Amino acid sequence: MTPLIPAVIGAALVGGALLAVLGLVPVPDDGRPGTARAAPRPIAALLGDSLPPSARRRRRLWLAGSALGGVLVWLLSGWVLAVVVFPLLVVGVPLLLSSPPTATDVDRLTAVEQWTRGMSGVLTVGSGIEHAIIASLGSAPEPVAPVVGTLVARLNARWPTEAALRAFADDLNDATGDLVAATLILGAQRRGPGLAAVLDDLAATVAEEVRIRRGIEADRAKPRTTARWVTILTLVVLGVLALDREYIAPYKTPVGQLALLVFLSMYAGCLLWLRRMTRGAPTPRFLPAASTGRRR
Asked: Under DSSP, is residue 83 helix (H, G, I), strand (E, B) or coil?
């Protein structure tokens, strides 16, 4: 082996380590349009761009550690493919087998139902809509407490009730939230009796929708559970077979590693396909988006 090949490998390792370190350093946004480049969706999901800062930092540390582990496996076993497969195995497979974000919407919908029922109870004692909304902040369930707090802050800032409720619907960004906001908007416009009873019936309707969505999410979780156990058993079997040097010897050749990469890509594609099939499409909203800023 000529000295050029070890030099290229060493430079590649150093460059990869530097790129991994640079990827963990946050880049400040200077506020100019067009300066921030959006990463492709699979890469953004792998890097955890949509996660909170602490979880995103943890995800990227896991990626950097698994990349170094892949390099170590490569140096010890000669499997160059481990540099790519090991990080994807540590971070990508749990990401593909995890529950999609739509599963958390049921908890938020339950909180909307509880908040609507609480609003009905406050309106029963004769309070106005604005006073009932402000009074409901203390008992608002945790999933909607920030959104209700923003609504109360807008009302306290002398926003018109309809504009504040439309912005409230935008914050919820859900068809059921539009239904609740539209009911409150009509009640604020007419100022007549009976709004408490309407909200009580609306809360019952939302509760029924929560029950239906929970059943749908339970049915969607079944294939994910099956795929999770199949993947775990597959990894265990592959781990046992990896101990047989004669069995894995063909996969150490360039053609064998290319074939292994194709097989793993097909398996990952099936997991991605399963995840997309079990992700429900959101119900279209019917309230138009509120205009930006305070309206009179």
From this structure: helix
Residue 294 dihedral angles phi and psi, to the nearest 5°:
-80, 135
Q: What are the pLDDT digits (tens) for 90-135?
A: 777 777 777 666 555 788 888 888 888 888 877 766 567 888 888 8
Residues 173, 219: Cα–Cα separation, whole Å: 24
Of residues 185 and 191, the one with the higher pLDDT is 185
Region of 160 (left: φ > 0; alpha: ψ -120 to 50; beta: rest) is beta
How would you class 166 by CB atoms within 10 Å of its CB: exposed for 0-12, middle for 13-18, buried for 19 or more?
A: buried
Residue 53's alpha-carbon distances to 5, 26, 62, in angstroms, are 40, 10, 14
Percent of the chain with pLDDT over 90: 6
> Identity (one letter) of the amino acid at 296?
R
Q: Which amino acid is at 216?
A: I
Measure Cα distances from 232 to 145, 186, 236 in Å: 39, 53, 6
Q: Which of 14-28, 43-57, 258-272 has the highest mean pLDDT?
A: 258-272
Query: What is the spatial distance between Cα 165 and Cα 159, in angstroms, rounded to a whole number?
Result: 10
Count of beta carbons in the 10 Å neighbourhood of residue 158: 9
CA distance to 8, 180, 185, 200, per residue, from 194 (Å) = 78, 15, 14, 10
- Residue 192 has a pLDDT of 67
